[in-house]
Amino acid sequence: MNVFLGIMIPFVGTALGASCVFLLKNEIRPLIQKILLGFASGVMVAASVWSLLMPAMNMSEHMGKMAFVPAAAGLLAGVAFLLLLDVVVPHLHLDHEAPEGPKKGWSRSTMLVLAVTLHNIPEGMAVGVVFAGMMAENAQITMAGAFALSIGIAIQNFPEGAIISLPLKSENGMNRGKAFLYGASSGIVEPAAAAITILLSEFLTPVLPYLLAFAAGAMLYVVVEELIPEASEGEHSNIGTIGFTVGFVLMMILDVALG
User: For residues 215-245, b (16+ Cβ closer than 10 Å) or e, as one string?
Assistant: First the structure.
């Protein structure tokens, strides 16, 4: 039951964010969007370091001076995986008119949801890998630490859910219920990816350090490629930096205090 709750927490964060479509009349103001995007970036970077990369290196201490190899190899593989998805999956980022990936003629709303879904795949994998490590009774990963990662990702998923659902209502003319469903559905991939990872944990445990770093690399790709540039566009980019700092510190506190 604890594991089920743990992998569902990030989805709840997305759904709660998407529910803002019932409370707000218009899109989130640009300054608020910058703060939220920066905040999400800070949470993801801190989670990548404290919850994923550091445990990966600690698990590899027996390799001596080569203990960095699993973390470095996994991180590079995670970046390459997200780069590949960016190339092969049609998607559209907020505030962009031209879609990325293959030309499919899909609707704007579908490609907006796909863009957020791509972000959520590595987050779901990260949660799944951490809970798989906890279930394998790895000394580097505790139940509290696994829940800290889940809660941190849920916190940064809240603004993502709002940022995707509100434009669907205001720009695409969707009714509130449909915009909520689109926004919430972008988070379904997280518990799905986490569950698949846990189901395969028996086979994945020997390469757990690589998988932790893989998830970190994928999350860092999303931050550097999309979240930080979007938070820094136009005027008042320092607002995004403040949001990043707050998100980073909050996730660091969660991980260290609960881990």
Answer: bbbbbbbbbebbbbebbbeeeeeebbbebbe
